[in-house]
């Protein structure tokens, strides 16, 4: 059996080596890794201003929450090596938490299938999941998280995405454990820091619903979440003494004033946007990730893991300041969909685009910013391709699940009266 | 940049113009009175009485014009024209009317925008402190404006007064002051303080400062500036201000300084002082061209200003030309002045003596005069004694993503440390990081930033206000101090770039203020006097200097300006790539159909499996 300890140790060693070899300097300035929202340099600036008894929210450099500021103030008192260790430790904890969450998720999926076996086609047994088959999936998740180059870079560049991912993984674990209180508590922290995770309220409400009491669950989940969030915001207000932080954090996330390039779709779009359409498209692009939540929740209401995975992916693709740390997070959950791989259609293309864009984007950035021989369009092209690859990957998983569900219900053969048939959506 | 040139009309109404037309009317009154009808006589009488009343009501104004010429050790000649108008009126208590010598357009600006003090300069190129010493009037490259408003105004009122002021100035001087907005304005804390009489009540929140490093200064600024002079360029030293020669120089700077001063020695009441000054550095060695006989550094009014002086301004109480002849007496260069000066005297100040030749234009008997300096020996470039403090600044780093701002300040004074105030105004799109601010000293001595109160930092806000840093440093004796901090270059919207975006963005100069213990290389006038005439042999406890460093050009990454439509289409396509499949998946049902009934479908969105 595959041992998670090996990947844990390897992951720690890689990170420790990279920290020691001074990779922080070169990685922390990479736009794919550090965005205005998660850059460590800005955190240091914020804490520095705070220590000068000057509000970091007076300027436009610091975009973390006051709660985060308090945490980072303590972190920055640590010795440099200890600080690096904290980052590594957070990544390892995230991996362990994700592993545990995946273990629970996959158990649920298997149990759910066995419950539905009666309604399934007799052929379906060929493709149903067996416990032995899925036993390794959680370990794969550990490896996929700790050895993922995106996550490794994100950790070595000391982005605050490391902490965001930790909280998000805790939310998933609490969701898998079906604990409403814990999951909304963690979610309150996650959404407090980066706003978009608020959409995970829906899978939490579904996961914690008792038999046929979805509405009640939605109400309870929303209320507890609102309670925790208002506590956090009240605490943030008390610690800074003004509401200015709302503008600096959520204002910055929603209005997208900082057009520093990143891997997302916002920066160049809004750089080139005509002024009189600016507000309209800000609304369109910000609403975009949220409009998928309810339809997807209705379509996959019996599959909370898939719904959570999808929402995490949508967040990483469509948020205003995405970084590869966010991408790495949902990529680490891919082993959950091991059984869907035969139904994937674009895995090769997606794999190629991921590889090519990851290599090309630093090169084209260099050509644009340093040598001046390329222009912004080149880098923009790689970010577009990267987003396209992510979208293909996501739709592939969703369509594969739909097809898998169909096969479970109607058998493996796609034949109508002995003639070859095919599935269409109509 | 666009220059709103609607100023000319306003300036046409300058007081000199009015007084001329007045004189014409009075001339009319001398016409044979008996020929006129009786009621016209009474009318005329009334007019005379009224003009007498006006004269009584009008408060006293005095005007002086001065020119200081100082040959510099580099072979350049520094000329400083100073036109000072003193008006015994307190604009904070009485409404300004009955303008005589004082320009009406300036007076209206003072009252409209509740101004207590105004200092502005329009400068082309950089004053080379290291080689030329200190100028009389310090000015940074480009346009610079500093104002103090009445203390009773609140912050918003001051902001709107400030915006109104810069727009008026933009019209008055035909310059780009209208590009001063709140995004490049700061409230200076220590560097700029009111220079006139301290009337109290104001603090940093009543002050505004802005600079436009990219402003180009030319004839269209000089012409309206000249019209503010009581004699314009018709007579007096104004005659020497020929645009062609002004802009053929190495450095020129127009300035306007307005401040309240003491009316008399008792200082019970205040007066308004308006000082219009023009600095010019010409290079006669270049003007003469190369000769086979070595470097010819001769200069004259004709060669520098392109004109002889035909008269003094009749309205001027003081009309004097001073020539600094110290270099003639102390170094190996020997030059002769023609015609002979009215007087030669020594100005002892702060441990240094300056020899000056004086031409009193009110005592000149034969016009025109063309003061000439002819060298008996060829000019040899000597060792330039460095000034006590000078500074340079540059941008470090490479690429268009980030950089460093580095300022090097030299303290050449052997005897003691010098305290300075350092000001830096960084535009919002250069995001500076205060925690990267470092100080290095060539002698590894501390620079005295030991307590946070010596550092003032107001971070910028995107599209709202610039970053503002002020430091109170102690420069260790005989050392070089380097101030360095890092910044990230912002990425702007395509409409926020200037037309020549690839040239880069200009950063204004850093400003260093200090009170020097000795007057070496110092040329200015003490703050409590108005004119050179009163300033000779006045010793002070310190000699104020305000050094402006170079302006910088920062290359910024630019988007492709030609393809907004393409970018909008492509980004929306990618969004649609997600929207289509997700919409189909969540709204449609799967159904099995015969394969041959399906048309060839390339569209992923309608197709599953």
From TrEMBL, chain A:
Pathway: Glycolipid biosynthesis; glycosylphosphatidylinositol-anchor biosynthesis. The chain crosses the membrane at residues 82-106, 150-175, 181-206, 218-237, 277-297, 349-370, 376-399. Pfam families: PIG-U (PF06728). GO terms for biological process: attachment of GPI anchor to protein; GPI anchor biosynthetic process. Keywords: Endoplasmic reticulum, GPI-anchor biosynthesis, Membrane, Transmembrane, Transmembrane helix. It is found in: Endoplasmic reticulum membrane. One of its GO terms (cellular component) is GPI-anchor transamidase complex. It is a multi-pass membrane protein. PANTHER family: GPI TRANSAMIDASE COMPONENT PIG-U (PTHR13121), PHOSPHATIDYLINOSITOL GLYCAN ANCHOR BIOSYNTHESIS CLASS U PROTEIN (PTHR13121:SF0). Belongs to the PIGU family. This is Phosphatidylinositol glycan anchor biosynthesis class U protein. The lineage of its organism: Eukaryota, Metazoa, Ecdysozoa, Arthropoda, Crustacea.
UniProtKB/TrEMBL annotation, chain B:
The chain crosses the membrane at residues 563-585. Pfam families: Gpi16. Keywords: Membrane, Transmembrane, Transmembrane helix. GO terms for cellular component: GPI-anchor transamidase complex. It comes from the Eukaryota. InterPro entries: PIG-T. One of its GO terms (biological process) is attachment of GPI anchor to protein. This is EOG090X043F. It comes from Daphnia sinensis.
């Amino acid at each position: 059996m595959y041992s998670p300890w090996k990947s844990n140790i390897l992951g720690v060693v890689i990170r420790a080596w990279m920290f020691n070899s001074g990779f922080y300097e070169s990685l922390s300035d990479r736009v794919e890794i550090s965005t205005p929202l998660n850059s460590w340099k800005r955190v240091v600036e914020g804490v520095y201003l705070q220590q000068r008894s000057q509000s970091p929210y007076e300027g436009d450099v610091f975009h973390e929450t006051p709660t985060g500021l308090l945490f980072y103030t303590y972190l920055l008192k640590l010795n440099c090596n200890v600080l690096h260790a904290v980052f590594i430790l957070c990544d390892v904890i995230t991996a362990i938490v994700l592993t545990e969450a995946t273990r629970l998720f996959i158990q649920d999926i298997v149990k759910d299938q066995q419950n539905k076996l009666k309604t399934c086609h007799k052929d379906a047994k060929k493709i149903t999941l067996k416990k032995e088959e899925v036993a390794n999936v959680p370990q794969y998740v550990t490896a996929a998280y700790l050895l993922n180059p995106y996550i490794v870079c994100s950790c070595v560049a000391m982005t605050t995405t490391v902490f965001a991912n930790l909280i998000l993984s805790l939310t998933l674990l609490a969701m898998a454990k079906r604990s409403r209180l814990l999951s909304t508590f963690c979610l309150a922290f996650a959404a407090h820091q980066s706003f978009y995770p608020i959409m995970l309220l829906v899978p939490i409400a579904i996961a914690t619903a008792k038999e046929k009491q979805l509405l009640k669950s939605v109400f309870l989940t929303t209320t507890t979440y609102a309670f925790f969030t208002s506590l956090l915001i009240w605490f943030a207000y008390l610690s800074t003494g003004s509401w200015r932080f709302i503008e600096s954090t959520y204002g910055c996330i929603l209005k997208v004033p900082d057009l520093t390039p990143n891997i997302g779709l916002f920066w160049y779009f809004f750089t080139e946007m005509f002024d009189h359409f600016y507000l309209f498209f800000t609304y369109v692009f910000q609403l975009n990730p949220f409009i998928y939540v309810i339809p997807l929740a209705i379509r996959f209401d019996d599959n909370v893991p898939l719904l959570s995975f999808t929402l995490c992916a949508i967040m990483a693709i469509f948020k205003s300041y995405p970084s590869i740390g966010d991408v790495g997070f949902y990529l680490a959950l891919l082993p959950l969909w091991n059984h869907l791989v035969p139904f994937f259609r674009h895995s090769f293309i997606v794999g190629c685009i991921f590889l090519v864009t990851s290599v090309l984007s630093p090169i084209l950035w260099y050509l644009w910013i340093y040598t001046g021989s390329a222009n912004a369009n080149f880098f923009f092209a790689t970010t577009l391709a990267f987003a396209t690859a992510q979208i293909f990957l996501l739709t592939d998983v969703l369509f594969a699940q739909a097809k898998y569900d169909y096969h479970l219900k109607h058998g493996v053969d796609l034949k109508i009266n002995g003639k070859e048939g095919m599935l269409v959506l109509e | 940049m666009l220059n709103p040139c609607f100023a000319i009309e306003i300036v046409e109404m300058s007081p000199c113009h009015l007084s001329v037309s007045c004189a014409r009317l009075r001339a009319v009154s001398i016409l044979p009175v008996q020929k006129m009808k009786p009621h016209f006589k009474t009318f005329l009488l009334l007019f005379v009485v009224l003009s007498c009343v006006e004269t009584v009501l009008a408060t006293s104004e005095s005007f002086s014009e001065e020119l200081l010429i100082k040959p510099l050790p580099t072979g350049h000649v520094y000329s400083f024209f100073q036109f000072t108008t003193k008006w015994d009126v307190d604009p904070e208590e009485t409404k300004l009317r009955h303008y005589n010598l004082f320009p009406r357009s300036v007076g209206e600006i003072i009252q409209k925008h509740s101004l207590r003090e105004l200092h502005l300069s329009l400068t082309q190129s950089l004053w080379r402190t290291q080689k030329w010493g200190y100028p009389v009037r310090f000015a940074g490259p480009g346009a610079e404006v500093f104002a103090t408003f009445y203390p009773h105004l609140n912050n918003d009122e001051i902001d709107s007064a400030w915006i109104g002021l810069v727009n008026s100035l933009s019209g008055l001087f035909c310059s780009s002051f209208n590009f001063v907005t709140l995004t490049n304005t700061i409230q200076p804390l220590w560097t700029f303080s009111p220079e006139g009489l301290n009337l109290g009540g104001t603090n940093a929140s009543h002050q505004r400062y802005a600079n436009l490093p990219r402003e180009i200064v030319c004839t269209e600024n000089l012409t309206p500036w000249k019209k503010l002079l009581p004699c314009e360029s018709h007579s007096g030293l104004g005659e020497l201000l020929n645009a062609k020669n002004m802009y053929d120089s190495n450095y020129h700077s127009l300035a306007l300084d307005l401040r309240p001063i003491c009316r008399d020695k008792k200082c019970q009441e205040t007066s308004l002082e308006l000082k219009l000054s023009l600095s010019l550095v010409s290079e006669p060695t270049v003007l003469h061209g190369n000769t086979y006989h070595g470097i010819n550094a001769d200069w004259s009014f004709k060669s520098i200003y392109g004109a002889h002086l035909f008269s003094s301004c009749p309205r001027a109480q003081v009309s004097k030309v001073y020539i600094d002849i110290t270099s003639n007496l102390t170094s190996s260069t020997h030059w002769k002045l023609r015609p002979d000066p009215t007087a030669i005297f020594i100005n002892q100040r702060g441990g240094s003596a300056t020899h000056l030749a004086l031409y009193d234009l009110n005592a000149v008997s034969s016009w025109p005069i063309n003061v000439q300096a002819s060298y008996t020996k060829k000019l040899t470039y000597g060792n330039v004694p460095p000034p006590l403090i000078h500074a340079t600044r540059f941008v470090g780093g490479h690429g268009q993503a980030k950089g460093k701002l580095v300022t090097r300040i030299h303290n050449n004074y052997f005897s003691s440390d010098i305290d300075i105030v350092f000001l830096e105004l960084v535009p919002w799109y250069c995001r500076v990081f205060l925690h990267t601010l470092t100080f290095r000293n060539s002698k590894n001595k501390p620079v005295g930033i030991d307590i946070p109160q010596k550092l003032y930092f107001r971070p910028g806000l995107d599209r709202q206000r610039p970053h503002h840093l002020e430091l109170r440093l102690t420069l260790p004796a005989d050392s070089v101090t380097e101030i360095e901090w890092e910044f990230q270059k912002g990425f702007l919207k395509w409409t926020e770039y200037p037309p020549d975006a690839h040239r880069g963005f200009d950063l204004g100069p850093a400003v260093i203020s200090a009170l020097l213990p000795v007057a070496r290389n110092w040329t200015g006038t003490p703050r409590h006097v108005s004119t050179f005439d009163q300033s000779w042999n006045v010793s002070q406890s310190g000699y104020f200097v305000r050094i402006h460093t170079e302006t910088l050009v920062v290359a910024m990454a630019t988007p492709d300006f030609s393809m907004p439509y393409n970018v909008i289409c492509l980004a929306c396509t990618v969004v649609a790539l997600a929207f289509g499949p997700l919409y189909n998946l969540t709204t449609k049902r799967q159904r099995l159909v015969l394969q041959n009934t399906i048309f060839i479908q390339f569209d992923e969105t309608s197709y599953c499996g």
